[in-house]
Amino acid sequence: MTISTNGKRLFIARHGETVYNLAGRMQGMNAHTPLTWQGCEQAAKMGEALRSHIADPDQLQLISSPSGRTLQTLALVAAGIHADWHSHSIDPRLREIDVGEWEGHYYADLFPDISELIDMEHKLFKQVAPGGEDYPAVEARLRDWISDQSFRQDMLIISHGMTARVLRALLLGLPILTGFGAPIARSLSQGTMVMICDGREEIVISGDGSGEKA
Predict the structure, then answer these.
(1) Those residues with Cβ within 8 angstroms of residue 113's Cβ, 6 or more apart along the chain or in another chain
(2) Residue 104: how many CB atoms within 10 A of its CB?
(3) In a 3-state reduction of DSSP, which class is residue 25?
(4) Taking the CB of the first residue and of the last residue of the chain, which one, N or C, has fewer CB atoms within 10 A?
Protein backbone atom coordinates (compact mmCIF):
# COMPACT_ATOMS: atom_id res chain seq x y z
CA MET A 1 0.00 0.00 0.00
CA THR A 2 1.46 3.34 -1.03
CA ILE A 3 1.70 6.21 1.44
CA SER A 4 -0.11 9.46 0.70
CA THR A 5 2.05 12.56 0.80
CA ASN A 6 -1.00 14.82 0.43
CA GLY A 7 0.14 15.88 -2.99
CA LYS A 8 3.46 17.11 -1.62
CA ARG A 9 6.71 16.17 -3.32
CA LEU A 10 9.50 14.39 -1.46
CA PHE A 11 12.88 14.90 -3.11
CA ILE A 12 15.03 12.07 -1.76
CA ALA A 13 18.75 12.07 -2.44
CA ARG A 14 21.66 9.83 -1.67
CA HIS A 15 24.72 11.75 -0.49
CA GLY A 16 27.69 12.29 -2.80
CA GLU A 17 30.79 10.10 -2.90
CA THR A 18 32.95 10.22 0.23
CA VAL A 19 36.58 9.44 0.97
CA TYR A 20 35.44 6.15 2.55
CA ASN A 21 33.39 5.24 -0.53
CA LEU A 22 36.40 5.86 -2.72
CA ALA A 23 38.70 3.81 -0.48
CA GLY A 24 36.27 0.92 -0.05
CA ARG A 25 35.71 1.38 3.70
CA MET A 26 32.46 0.86 5.59
CA GLN A 27 30.90 4.03 6.96
CA GLY A 28 27.68 2.99 8.66
CA MET A 29 25.91 5.56 10.78
CA ASN A 30 28.63 7.08 12.97
CA ALA A 31 31.55 7.85 10.65
CA HIS A 32 31.55 11.51 9.54
CA THR A 33 33.55 11.18 6.36
CA PRO A 34 33.89 14.16 4.00
CA LEU A 35 32.87 14.22 0.37
CA THR A 36 35.48 13.76 -2.32
CA TRP A 37 35.74 16.33 -5.09
CA GLN A 38 33.54 14.09 -7.21
CA GLY A 39 31.06 13.90 -4.34
CA CYS A 40 30.94 17.68 -4.18
CA GLU A 41 30.31 17.84 -7.92
CA GLN A 42 27.52 15.27 -7.59
CA ALA A 43 25.86 17.35 -4.86
CA ALA A 44 26.20 20.53 -6.91
CA LYS A 45 24.60 18.84 -9.91
CA MET A 46 21.70 17.67 -7.77
CA GLY A 47 21.17 21.27 -6.71
CA GLU A 48 21.20 22.43 -10.31
CA ALA A 49 18.71 19.74 -11.32
CA LEU A 50 16.41 20.50 -8.41
CA ARG A 51 16.32 24.22 -9.19
CA SER A 52 13.85 23.82 -12.05
CA HIS A 53 11.42 22.00 -9.73
CA ILE A 54 11.40 24.60 -6.96
CA ALA A 55 9.60 27.92 -7.39
CA ASP A 56 10.12 29.13 -3.81
CA PRO A 57 12.97 27.53 -1.85
CA ASP A 58 11.59 29.01 1.39
CA GLN A 59 8.61 26.66 1.01
CA LEU A 60 10.86 23.56 0.84
CA GLN A 61 11.48 21.68 4.09
CA LEU A 62 15.13 20.61 4.39
CA ILE A 63 15.79 17.38 6.30
CA SER A 64 18.95 15.34 6.68
CA SER A 65 20.49 12.41 8.41
CA PRO A 66 22.87 13.72 11.12
CA SER A 67 25.91 12.33 9.31
CA GLY A 68 28.55 14.78 8.18
CA ARG A 69 28.43 13.50 4.62
CA THR A 70 24.70 14.11 4.31
CA LEU A 71 24.92 17.56 5.88
CA GLN A 72 27.73 18.50 3.50
CA THR A 73 25.66 17.24 0.57
CA LEU A 74 22.66 19.21 1.83
CA ALA A 75 24.74 22.39 2.02
CA LEU A 76 25.74 22.10 -1.63
CA VAL A 77 22.26 21.16 -2.84
CA ALA A 78 20.75 24.04 -0.82
CA ALA A 79 23.22 26.46 -2.38
CA GLY A 80 22.14 25.29 -5.83
CA ILE A 81 18.50 26.19 -5.17
CA HIS A 82 19.27 29.29 -3.05
CA ALA A 83 17.73 27.74 0.06
CA ASP A 84 18.82 28.55 3.61
CA TRP A 85 20.88 25.59 4.88
CA HIS A 86 20.49 26.90 8.44
CA SER A 87 16.76 26.19 8.31
CA HIS A 88 17.32 22.44 7.99
CA SER A 89 16.42 19.83 10.57
CA ILE A 90 18.14 16.53 11.26
CA ASP A 91 16.63 13.23 12.26
CA PRO A 92 18.67 10.22 13.44
CA ARG A 93 16.04 7.86 12.02
CA LEU A 94 17.37 8.80 8.56
CA ARG A 95 20.90 7.63 9.38
CA GLU A 96 22.55 4.83 7.44
CA ILE A 97 22.22 1.18 8.38
CA ASP A 98 24.36 0.45 11.44
CA VAL A 99 27.29 -1.79 10.46
CA GLY A 100 28.41 -2.22 14.07
CA GLU A 101 31.92 -3.61 14.48
CA TRP A 102 32.53 -3.43 10.74
CA GLU A 103 32.48 0.37 10.66
CA GLY A 104 35.75 1.89 9.46
CA HIS A 105 37.11 -1.41 8.16
CA TYR A 106 37.99 -2.01 4.53
CA TYR A 107 35.56 -4.26 2.72
CA ALA A 108 38.49 -6.23 1.27
CA ASP A 109 39.96 -6.91 4.73
CA LEU A 110 36.69 -8.24 6.12
CA PHE A 111 35.57 -10.10 3.01
CA PRO A 112 38.26 -10.80 0.39
CA ASP A 113 35.46 -12.41 -1.60
CA ILE A 114 32.85 -9.64 -1.65
CA SER A 115 30.15 -12.09 -2.75
CA GLU A 116 30.24 -13.52 0.79
CA LEU A 117 28.94 -10.17 2.06
CA ILE A 118 26.94 -8.67 -0.80
CA ASP A 119 24.04 -10.18 -2.71
CA MET A 120 25.25 -8.99 -6.10
CA GLU A 121 21.80 -9.20 -7.72
CA HIS A 122 20.18 -6.86 -5.21
CA LYS A 123 23.29 -5.04 -3.93
CA LEU A 124 22.35 -5.76 -0.32
CA PHE A 125 24.14 -7.19 2.69
CA LYS A 126 23.72 -10.93 3.08
CA GLN A 127 24.95 -10.80 6.68
CA VAL A 128 24.18 -8.63 9.69
CA ALA A 129 27.24 -6.97 11.19
CA PRO A 130 28.13 -7.84 14.79
CA GLY A 131 26.39 -5.15 16.85
CA GLY A 132 24.71 -3.79 13.72
CA GLU A 133 21.22 -3.59 12.23
CA ASP A 134 19.26 -5.79 9.90
CA TYR A 135 16.86 -4.44 7.29
CA PRO A 136 13.71 -4.91 9.41
CA ALA A 137 15.30 -2.65 12.05
CA VAL A 138 15.91 0.04 9.42
CA GLU A 139 12.33 -0.36 8.24
CA ALA A 140 10.99 0.06 11.78
CA ARG A 141 12.72 3.39 12.40
CA LEU A 142 11.72 4.71 8.99
CA ARG A 143 8.09 3.73 9.52
CA ASP A 144 8.30 5.66 12.77
CA TRP A 145 9.71 8.68 10.92
CA ILE A 146 6.98 8.54 8.28
CA SER A 147 4.26 8.35 10.94
CA ASP A 148 5.53 11.66 12.38
CA GLN A 149 5.25 13.55 9.09
CA SER A 150 2.29 15.81 8.31
CA PHE A 151 3.33 16.31 4.66
CA ARG A 152 2.23 19.94 4.59
CA GLN A 153 5.00 21.12 2.29
CA ASP A 154 7.49 19.75 -0.21
CA MET A 155 10.56 18.16 1.37
CA LEU A 156 14.22 17.68 0.46
CA ILE A 157 15.57 14.62 2.25
CA ILE A 158 19.29 13.82 2.17
CA SER A 159 19.99 10.28 3.31
CA HIS A 160 22.10 7.23 2.48
CA GLY A 161 22.25 4.33 0.05
CA MET A 162 20.63 1.60 2.10
CA THR A 163 18.34 3.83 4.14
CA ALA A 164 16.97 5.70 1.13
CA ARG A 165 16.14 2.38 -0.53
CA VAL A 166 14.00 1.27 2.40
CA LEU A 167 12.38 4.71 2.75
CA ARG A 168 11.48 4.80 -0.94
CA ALA A 169 10.09 1.27 -0.78
CA LEU A 170 7.81 2.20 2.12
CA LEU A 171 6.55 5.33 0.37
CA LEU A 172 5.95 3.37 -2.83
CA GLY A 173 4.21 0.49 -1.06
CA LEU A 174 6.64 -2.15 -2.29
CA PRO A 175 6.39 -5.69 -0.87
CA ILE A 176 8.92 -7.28 1.43
CA LEU A 177 11.95 -8.40 -0.56
CA THR A 178 12.34 -12.14 -0.15
CA GLY A 179 15.34 -13.05 1.99
CA PHE A 180 15.79 -9.59 3.50
CA GLY A 181 12.70 -9.16 5.66
CA ALA A 182 11.85 -5.62 4.57
CA PRO A 183 10.65 -3.72 1.50
CA ILE A 184 13.67 -2.39 -0.41
CA ALA A 185 13.62 -0.31 -3.59
CA ARG A 186 16.14 -0.61 -6.38
CA SER A 187 19.66 0.69 -5.86
CA LEU A 188 20.52 4.24 -6.87
CA SER A 189 24.07 5.42 -7.45
CA GLN A 190 25.62 8.22 -5.41
CA GLY A 191 24.48 11.64 -6.50
CA THR A 192 21.04 10.41 -7.55
CA MET A 193 17.88 12.26 -6.56
CA VAL A 194 14.31 11.04 -6.99
CA MET A 195 10.94 12.70 -6.45
CA ILE A 196 8.12 10.75 -4.80
CA CYS A 197 4.57 12.06 -4.62
CA ASP A 198 1.59 9.97 -3.54
CA GLY A 199 3.18 6.65 -4.43
CA ARG A 200 4.78 7.65 -7.74
CA GLU A 201 8.53 8.01 -8.23
CA GLU A 202 10.42 10.01 -10.85
CA ILE A 203 14.15 10.50 -11.34
CA VAL A 204 15.23 14.13 -10.92
CA ILE A 205 18.85 13.38 -11.76
CA SER A 206 20.83 10.16 -12.08
CA GLY A 207 24.22 10.03 -10.39
CA ASP A 208 27.33 8.39 -11.73
CA GLY A 209 28.37 6.48 -8.61
CA SER A 210 29.71 2.98 -8.80
CA GLY A 211 27.34 1.00 -6.59
CA GLU A 212 25.87 0.38 -3.19
CA LYS A 213 28.13 0.98 -0.20
CA ALA A 214 26.93 1.80 3.27
Answers:
(1) none
(2) 14
(3) strand
(4) N
